Amino acid sequence: MSTHRKRPPTADHPVRRRRSAQEAKAETLRVARRILLERGPDAVTLKNIAAEIGTTHTNLLHHFGTAGELQSALMLAMVNDLSAALGSTIARLDRREDVPRALVDTMFDAFDQGGAGRLAAWIALSNRLAHFDDVKSAVQNLVGAIEEKFANGDGEARDKIAAAVLFVALLAFGNAVIGQPLAAMLAREPDAVRGLAERLLPQFL
Fold first, then answer.
1. Which of 114, 140, 155, 173 could serve as 110's disulfide partner, Cβ 3.0–4.6 Å?
2. Using an 8 Å Cβ cutoff, are 103 and 201 in contact?
3. SS3 for 3?
4. Residue 45 to residues 10, 41, 61, 109, Cα–Cα distance (Å)
5. Conformational region of residue 75, where left means phi above 0, alpha means psi within -120 to 50, and beta covers everything else
6. pLDDT the model gives residue 132
7. Quick check: helix, strand or coil at residue 1?
8. CB-CB neighbours of 65 under 10 Å
9. CA distance 33 to 77
10. How many Cα atoms are found within 13 Å in the side-chain-facing hemisphere of 41?
């Protein structure tokens, strides 16, 4: 008869709770997002994610099917986060004159710290352009939300708002990808592009 006994749980060896499939997927996407932000899209691999979580390729494939489907799920989750952040910002605004600053801050934060800039570059460079359909919905919803709240009978409001969103999104994307190195080359502050957007955006609205 075996004399081996199970080691009691300690602070160094806690009992691991079995996670649900939903919890496992959520943790995988959190780790994948962190890897994307810290190490770039090339590092978002099953091997790297499994090593970070402490699991196996097989477990990841069980939840997502393929590496491509995992990456697609990450892209969709990040697009949804961007859409939610933009919608929340507009919902909190009470005055039209507050829109430019709020729009710039939300866009630049989402594209930089939130990872939307790297995400957009990843989608474009990997030629997975179908994912931009989700981005399209988020952008159109943003334009519609601003128009509904602040148009006040201005027949040209939608065109103005669409131009403003286009302007800020392009600046935020460029800033997230190459803004700081380019600003340094031109002896400008790291947030020079954000400041430029804040000064120029009111001309569109």
1. 114
2. yes
3. coil
4. 33, 9, 12, 26
5. alpha
6. 77
7. coil
8. 12
9. 9
10. 19
Mean pLDDT of 138-167: 81
Amino acid present at 126? S
Residue 37 corresponds to which tokens in the numbers above? 């932000």
Nearest-angstrom CA–CA distance, 82 and 141: 12
Architecture of the CATH domain 18-65:
Orthogonal Bundle (1.10)
Q: Any idea where the domains of the chain sit in the sequence?
A: 18-65, 74-203
Selected residue with higher pLDDT from 118 and 184: 184
d(CA 88, CA 105): 13
Residue with tokens 């592009």: 193
Amino acid in the structure at residue 41 = P
Distance CA 40, CA 111 (A): 14
The answer, yes or no, to whether residue 80 has pLDDT greater than 90, is no
Question: Of 172, 148, 168, which is closest to residue 158 (Cα–Cα)?
Answer: 148
**CATH number listed for the domain at residues 74-203:** 1.10.357
Over 50: is that where the pLDDT of 66 sits? yes
